[in-house]
Amino acid sequence: MQITQSLHAALLISNLEKSQHFYSTVLGMQKIDRDLKFPGIWYQIGNFQIHLILAATIPDAIDYEKLGRNRHLAFSVANLEAAKQQLIAHNCPVQMSASGRSALFTQDPDGNIIELSQ
Question: The whole model's pTM is what?
Fold first, then answer.
């Protein structure tokens, strides 16, 4: 088997409105149409998609001291400082990478961890 590309990642969410605000407004992602019978929001980033699926409960097992050691999504950004300021302006948590590299971690409204690196 040879994996050739990443197609999508699915995350569980508890509130469609809060998640849409975070992914659309804070992160600036492009929402796409979906034709499914269960509630959720899909986003397109290049050839990659994020599938946010509404769930009744979300597991809580996060190491808050080092967010990067948890399950997370990672995105490249053009300007890490500008991304950091955008997150702060929206009262989102920001944790710089413990490794010292040019990266930070934040969380969406349901605690899903997002890595941004330059």
Answer: 0.72
